Structure formats: structure tokens, C-alpha cells
Structure to design on (472 residues):
């Protein structure tokens, strides 16, 4: 199944990627499963995605590592927000 | 309710007059404006870059405003957040609230700012003579948002 | 610190720009504007007359601002209160506070308004189709001022 | 001793007087003594000045019935404030 992934701020810089489409294995993968797949890409990925302050959103709503991902979902990884 | 995410500067008086015009005899209008500071951790800031998550930003700001409306009797609410490159002393963010009750206008305006700071997906990068770095989230901002859970 | 008691209207953006100009990289500016409501106790208000005690007004406002400064780290403070005859939806009062801390700017601005409402010698007379009457002081305003004695 | 007295808002209307200069007997009179003297002037004076919410200022600072008045003082009587 195809999902869309966005990376923001220091996560984006750490993995040197802003946006990608990725084919995930079917079977109700969770955000945790996606993180494990992405972490295989190298030390910079593993480190950025294991940051204890990492936030994740699924379809533009804050989610958790346990959230299940469905076909066509938009997933985003980012650090704590600092606007305002 | 208006929410604007924009690169260009905003005009406080235009926003204020819109709140005044769109409200039903409001009695009280509270505005908050955030400006770029010129120093951070004792370093001079030469510029700031504001990144955001288009789509989610508007969604989260709308949700914050809905929360404020559920807690206080407010009339109009207006939020503007700038993105892109900003210089020291430039305006970054505006929150304006009108209400027939002074306390409601103050509380809703501060509540929206506190949750904007902790929930809306914006990220600041500061540029100084010593280099550029992403700003860390502050405990004081988390505390400011948390304190609303104890109150009516 | 500026305190103005005047008959003529004021321009929010001029006051805001003065706060911005006179502050040292403020970070946060909070403004409160009070407007004449168009109804009171279900009667339509046709006009309002604001009387004050010249001399004591300025003294009491300065004391309130000093109290706010002693409690919070604020930079500039500006207060304007109009007197004389005002029509519904006209601006009556402005309080603007700049600070490097958002929470300080909000608290000081609300504190000044709460004490202005209970300590500064202004009196409102409302004119309606049914006649004119002096406005009674509200318990809610007394409570709003009292609550500051419980807080830091 | 000569003092100056101001009346505001509904007090001013009740006693139909905005401002006056008054000669008071020497001997450290209090605001209470002044109120007693003024209350002799008639029922409207007595009633206005016995209002439990009446406020008094001496030299533009909020005072009480026990405050002592001195030569040249400015005394003001007014109801609870309602500005803002």
C-alpha cells in the first residue's frame, strides 16, 4: 500500500528528505513498523526517528507509535513545535 | 473566525477594525502580537526562518480556536501566523479576540497563544553570527499550556 | 509609561506603534480596548457620559501601573481613558503592555484593567430611551480585582 | 481652617453641588466630623453622605471616615467607580 511521508525542521535536515511516497507491506502496519523500516536506511535515519521528543501525525492529526496506517495515509515526522 | 498563514507582514489596525466590524457590540477586544526578539541565549539574532506543515497548521489552529470557544463566550477570533524569513523586531504572530466580557477576551486570547505555542506545527530556525540552529521547545511553554487544564 | 485622559478618540495602531518603538525588543505586546456596549439591562443605550476626578485619576492610574510593574517584568505601559459623551461602539479605554514575556504582558494588561475598573475615579452615566442613570458598580469587577491578591 | 470639597457622579447630583470651599472648626476634625456638618444641610445631604457605598478621598487618595483633615486639604465624596 502506498503512503505519503513528510519530514519537518531538524528531522528533515537530519534525514535530508522533505517528502516521499513509500510502498508499505499490507497488514495494518503501525507507525512503529514504518519507523523500523525507515531506520534501516542508515544511522542518521535511525537516530532522527528514535529521538524521544519525536512527534508523528497521521493525516494531519497528532498520532502515536501505535497508530495504524492505512492506504493513502499522510504521515509526518517532526520535532516539538516552536512557533508563535 | 479567520486563520491566515502568510509570508507578508500584517497590519494590527486592519485586524482590529475587522474584529470590531464583525462583532456584535463587543465591549472588549484583546490583541496579542508576537515579535521577533533580537537576541537568543546571549547571541544576536540576524534573522529567523519559520517553517510550518501546510494543512495541519490550519487544522490545529481551528481546533485550538474551537476549544477556546467551548470554554469562553467569545464573539470574533482572528489568528495570523507568518512563515518564511523574518528579521528582528518584525511581527510574527497575531491573535485577536472580541467578546462582551473582558475576562473572556483575555483568557481566550492567552489560551489560543499558549496552545499555538505547543500544538500548532511551526518551527523556528534562528540565524546568528555564530551559525544557525533550530529553536528548542521551552518547558515554560509546555507549563503555560498545561495550566489551562486546572481551570474553568 | 503614558497615561492619557482625553475627550477625543484614540488610534489603536498609533498606540501600538509607540509601544513597539519605545520598547527594547519586546517579543510580546498585549492590548485591551473597551468599547461602549449598545445595551444595558435590556435597554438600548443611546449615549454614555463619562465623568472623572481630574488629578486623582492620573494618580490612581499611575499607582496601578506601578503595582503591575512591581509584579511583572514589563517594558512599556500605555493607558488611555476617554471622558465626556460617547456613543455606542465608540472606544472608551485602551491598555497596552509590552514585555519580553508573553505571560507577563497578558497578566499586567488584565491586572491594570481590573484595577482601573475598581480603583480609578471614573463614573458612567447611561442614556436610554427610558431615561438616564448612573451605572452601578459590578460585583464581578470587584471579584476580578480581588482574585489578584491570591496570585503571584 | 479652610478645606476644599468635591462631589462626583450621583453624589454630586443628589446634593446639587460640584465644588465648594468650607471653613471647618479647628481641632483635628475627621472626615466623619465633616460628614456630620454637611448632613445638617438637609435630607438630601444626609442621605447621600450616609450611603454605605460612599467613598471619600483626602488629597486624591482614598481615605476613611477616621481620616483626619488638615488646613487646605482637598476632600472628595463619590460612589464606587464604574469606568473602563
Amino acid at each position: 500500500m502506498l503512503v505519503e511521508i513528510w519530514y519537518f525542521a531538524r528531522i528533515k535536515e537530519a534525514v535530508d528528505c522533505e517528502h516521499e511516497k513509500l510502498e508499505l507491506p499490507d497488514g495494518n502496519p503501525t507507525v512503529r513498523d514504518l519507523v523500523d523500516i525507515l531506520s534501516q536506511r542508515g544511522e542518521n535515519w535511525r537516530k532522527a526517528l528514535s529521538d524521544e521528543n519525536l512527534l508523528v501525525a497521521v493525516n494531519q492529526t497528532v498520532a502515536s507509535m501505535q497508530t495504524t496506517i492505512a492506504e493513502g495515509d499522510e504521515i509526518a515526522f517532526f520535532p516539538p513545535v516552536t512557533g508563535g | 473566525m479567520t486563520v491566515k498563514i502568510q509570508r507578508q507582514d500584517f497590519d494590527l489596525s486592519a485586524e482590529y477594525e475587522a474584529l470590531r466590524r464583525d462583532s456584535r457590540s463587543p465591549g472588549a477586544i484583546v490583541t496579542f502580537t508576537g515579535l521577533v526578539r533580537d537576541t537568543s541565549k546571549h547571541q544576536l539574532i540576524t534573522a529567523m526562518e519559520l517553517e510550518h506543515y501546510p494543512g495541519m497548521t490550519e487544522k490545529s489552529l481551528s481546533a485550538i480556536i474551537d476549544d477556546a470557544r467551548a470554554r469562553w463566550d467569545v464573539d470574533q477570533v482572528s489568528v495570523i501566523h507568518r512563515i518564511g524569513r523574518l528579521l528582528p523586531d518584525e511581527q510574527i504572530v497575531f491573535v485577536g479576540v472580541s467578546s462582551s466580557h473582558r475576562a473572556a477576551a483575555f483568557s481566550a486570547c492567552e489560551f489560543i497563544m499558549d496552545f499555538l505555542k505547543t500544538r500548532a506545527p511551526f518551527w523556528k530556525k534562528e540565524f546568528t553570527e555564530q551559525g544557525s540552529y533550530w529553536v528548542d521547545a521551552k518547558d515554560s511553554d509546555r507549563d503555560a499550556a498545561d495550566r489551562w487544564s486546572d481551570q474553568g
Summary: DSSP finds three helices and five strands in chain A.
